[in-house]
Amino acid sequence: MWVSANQLTGYTPVHAIGSVDVIVNNVNGKIATAPRAYTYVGPTITGINPNHGPMKGGTSVGINGSLFQNGAIVTFDGISATVVTFLQCELHCRDNPGGSCGKRSWPERQYHGT
């Protein structure tokens, strides 16, 4: 949306994670480009507590980070966990019984939604 000769405002479209060029095409055919000026970011994990548990599963785990979305799917080495609490920066889940023994690199994660 045009605000003035020196300012435009608008909303970003849906896009994959990464940096993109921002381009303004004026009605007179003049074009301005700001290379890689905007970066789409995705969810990040900053901490997991606890980061270990028994091989029988069932451990309540807190996952801290940012940009989590309601409906996020959490997996531990490809096995789905049950998300019991959702906040934008924190997920609480219970890992499901049936995993195999051994220390893992946590977490393997999957997300869906908008």
Task: Give the secondary structure arrangement, pairings included.
Blueprint: E1 2-4, E2 7-8, E3 18-25, E4 31-40, E5 44-49, E6 60-66, E7 73-76, E8 79-87, E9 90-95, E10 108-110
Care to describe what's here?
The protein is an all-beta fold and 114 residues long. The protein folds into two domains: 39 residues, no CATH class; 67 residues, Sandwich (Immunoglobulin-like). 0% of the residues lie in helices and 51% in strands. The chain contains no helices and ten strands. The strands form three sheets. The chain has a six-stranded antiparallel sheet with strand order 5-6-9-8-7-10, with no helix packed on it. Strands 1-2 form a two-stranded antiparallel ribbon. Strands 3-4 form a two-stranded antiparallel sheet. It is elongated and about 65 Å long. The C terminus is likely disordered.
Q: Name the overall outline.
A: elongated
Mean pLDDT: 80
Largest sheet: 6 strands, antiparallel
CATH topology of the largest domain: Immunoglobulin-like
Beta-sheet strand percentage? Answer: over 45%
Features:
114 residues, mainly beta, Immunoglobulin-like, 2 domains, six-stranded antiparallel beta sheet, elongated, disordered C terminus
